[in-house]
Amino acid sequence: MVDNENNKRVLVFNNTEHAMALFGAQNNHLSLLEDELNVSLNTRGNQLEITGAGANAALAAEIMEELEVLLEKGIPVGRSDVVNATRMAKSGKLSQFLRIYEEEITRDRDNRPIRVKNFGQREYVQSVKKNDIVFGIGPAGTGKTFLAVAMAVAAMRRGEVKRIILTRPAVEAGENLGFLPGDLKEKVDPYLRPLYDALYSIFGTEHTNRLMDRETIEVAPLAYMRGRTLDDAFVILDEAQNTTVQQMKMFLTRLGFGSKMIINGDITQIDLPAGTTSGLVHAERVLKHVKGIGHVEFDAADVVRHPLVSKVIQAYGEEKSN
Question: Is the pTM of this model over 0.85?
Answer without folding.
Answer: no
